[in-house]
Design the sequence.
């Protein structure tokens, strides 16, 4: 007999303001424990150093995680010049150093090279898999892997200001899936001839979700004892803002939930999310008036 999952069937998104020093996995575990949720996952890892927007999926929202993982991410970050570290952030060991400090003009001239489609080598301490092992595990064992460059998309990179007598530069970035801000700091430092690493990092938005909607763990610990949850829980379809919505009848919704194809009077094509009476039913492919469900939600 299959073991039943412990916890309450809570469905939706909680936008956590992840604290510094916490792994994303630990943060998810804490939220799940506080809410007593049966199932939880996150929509994009944040480094322990980083703070900010960590979308946490609860229950049926976990089925929409891939759409959050692929959403555009926004960050504000600080790069400290003069040292390159093996982790490409302030938690690592210094491997190269320089007394040089770049000017605003030097940095500004470099920014266009890191905008658009950019070839980027992930940090040695990253979750990239190499022969079935995580790169960070190999690096911790003193045998860092040689990682291949891969294309990432950086929509916007802006130098905000230079502080601490030109030792630190503050940037904002909007980027696509798989972009490592730490690798960006490393590569800019090398090209500027001064080396660099990330010393502060905050994710300010994921897709259409911003830090204004995020809740801290401290606040959550207080609010969780004062139901209802709808004060800070967003609906499952929050993750699907970039996908067209399609409304169907109750009977059509029942057929879709059972995996059947439904014919609808629509000229749309491609992936849609299907609603019936204000409730999310399924993700489906729509082609030539035929609606084929590929992910069904049990809400």
Sequence:
């Amino acid at each position: 007999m299959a073991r039943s999952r412990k916890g309450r069937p809570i469905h939706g998104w909680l936008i956590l303001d992840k604290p510094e020093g916490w792994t994303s996995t630990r943060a998810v575990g804490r939220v799940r424990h506080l809410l007593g949720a049966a199932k939880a996952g996150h929509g994009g890892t944040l480094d322990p150093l980083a703070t900010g927007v960590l979308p946490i999926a609860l229950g049926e929202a976990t089925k929409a995680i891939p759409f959050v993982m692929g959403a555009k991410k926004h960050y504000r970050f600080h790069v400290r010049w003069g040292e390159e570290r093996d982790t490409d952030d302030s938690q690592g060991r210094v491997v190269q150093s320089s007394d040089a400090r770049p000017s605003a003009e030097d940095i500004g001239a470099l920014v266009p090279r890191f905008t658009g489609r950019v070839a980027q080598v992930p940090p040695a301490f990253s979750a990239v898999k190499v022969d079935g092992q995580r790169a960070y595990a190999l690096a911790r064992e003193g045998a860092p892997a040689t990682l291949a460059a891969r294309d990432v998309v950086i929509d916007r990179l802006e130098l905000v200001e230079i502080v601490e007598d030109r030792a630190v530069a503050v940037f904002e970035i909007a980027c696509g899936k798989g972009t490592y801000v730490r690798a960006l700091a490393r590569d800019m430092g090398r090209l500027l001839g001064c080396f660099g690493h990330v010393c502060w990092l905050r994710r300010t938005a994921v897709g259409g979700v911003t830090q204004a909607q995020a809740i801290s763990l401290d606040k959550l610990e207080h609010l969780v004892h004062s139901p209802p949850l709808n004060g800070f829980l967003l609906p499952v379809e929050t993750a699907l803002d970039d996908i067209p919505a399609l409304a169907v009848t109750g009977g059509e919704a029942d057929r879709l939930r059972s995996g059947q194809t439904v014919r609808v009077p629509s000229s749309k094509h491609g992936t849609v999310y299907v609603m019936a009476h204000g409730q999310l039913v399924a993700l489906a492919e729509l082609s030539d008036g035929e609606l084929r469900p590929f992910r069904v939600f049990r809400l």
